[in-house]
Amino acid sequence: MNDKLNLIIILMKQKMPFKRNHFLKLLLCAALFLPQYVCAQFDWPYHIKDGIVKTKVPERAAGQQHVLNLKCEKLPVVRVAFIGLGMRGQMSVERWLHQEGVQIVALCDHEQSRADQANERLRKAGFPPAAVYSGAEGYKEACKRNDVDLVFIATDWDHHFPTAQFAMNNGKHVAIEVPSAMNMREIWALINLSETTRKHCMMLENCCYDFFEMNTLSMAQKGLFGEIVYAMGAYRHDLTPYWDEYWKGGAPKLGWRLDYNMKYRGDVYPTHGLGPVAQLLNLHRGDRMKTLIAMDTKSFNGRKLASKGLGQDVKDFRNGDQTATLIRTEKGKVLEIHHNTMNPQPYNRMYQITGTEGFANKYPIEGYCLTKPAMQRAGVNRTGNYEEGEDYMSKTDMATLVNKYRNPLITKYEKRAKEVGGHGGMDYIMDSRLIYCLQHGLPLDIDVYDLAEWCCLAELGSIAMDNGNLPVEVPDFTRGHWNEVQGFGYAFASTEEEKAQDEANHAFTMKLKTTAEKLWKKYDKAHAKR
């Protein structure tokens, strides 16, 4: 309030070259005290009314429809272009070489050497070469190709949205690394793009496919924990060994990730912690996030890192070392999400749920705790020396429980996932589900509204903190359809359809490999002339 009074005094002293200068001064002063649309640091408009922040919700265009449970034309063969071939992109290409019924047709990175490196992975695995693109706008040529069905985006954060936007405008499905959208403007644009183009826009949130999370989801869906009332998630990961590894784009910058944390405030990497618990709570499938509040510490280590990297004292490092966000849902559930990449600590995604009849926890102790009635319903006879509902189950009883409630994706993919790897196998399961759903024309596990809900914590949290930690209304990204689908679930084809597709996948991949030697000779000859 004192800041506003000081501004009024300044305005009243100004000489204005207008005939109605007194009226203008009064109008400007009054505006300071009225609820109004303003712009956040991320630039999405919001207003404050009765102590609550409300952000603008754009109207759905005439004729545009939601994409809940979106089904698209079956893709018997998934032809993919990889954009962004740093560490994460290279790992993704390597995993996809273990998938059948797919073809990598294009590889693109700002640095051509990285695209060439990824292409050598194809050669080593016995596949034909992919077309290589590079430079600041190489992704555009890759996205224009008529033989690309899916664009897999693993660029730095700044290029997630422009690449996805261009790809979808060129009729491609997109799968985008996390976080897929960096602000509310990008979030709403991706929603409108998916709804307009009727193309899938998936965020590649691999933690939804980790084994403990998937088994816990199966237990919750069968009512083992009773009513889930509270859930926790986080990304607590000391990135000290990695800050210098993030691409600097040839400029004397900090590297894109630290640079982003310096410029923007909020939970800028919320999806690893939020995604799995959001599925468990059926967000936009019977419940929705309604209100959030956010709070952060000052920047301590972040500011030191930036000062060291830039060789000068950085006084304004926007993001605090630790951010905490509390979210209340329409049905009265609460989520607690944390972010800290600046301070020394063991890796921790905090995955924890509390229900009326049970409890699950992954970090630092992995285990379950159930009431006696819940254990009886589960068919688990206690063998350990513990109190039901007070202590973790014994390892023997936990193994019995997990075996009974084993997630169907684990049953289907575990053996191969652990052979191929990718964060213990969860990356492989994520890839497999994406390919499976595209080939069978089924809804994806993660849709554009999941993307929106899991990414919005950054800007909405920033708005909350920049306004004295006021509560912020979380918009209904489905624009009125959040309660039409009841419960999160995986889509499956019939056993006969699966068998036929698997056989076709194997036949295609074997045939594709027979062309590799000839095509590589042609490729090498063409490139030798350059």
TrEMBL record:
Its cofactor is NAD(+). GO terms for molecular function: hydrolase activity, acting on glycosyl bonds; nucleotide binding. It comes from the Bacteria. Keywords: Glycosidase, Hydrolase, NAD, Signal. Residues 214-364 form the Glycosyl hydrolase 109 C-terminal domain. Residues 1-40 form the signal peptide. Pfam families: GFO_IDH_MocA, Glyco_hydro_109_C. Residues 78-202 form the Gfo/Idh/MocA-like oxidoreductase N-terminal domain. Belongs to the Gfo/Idh/MocA family. Glycosyl hydrolase 109 subfamily. This is Uncharacterized protein. It comes from Segatella maculosa OT 289.
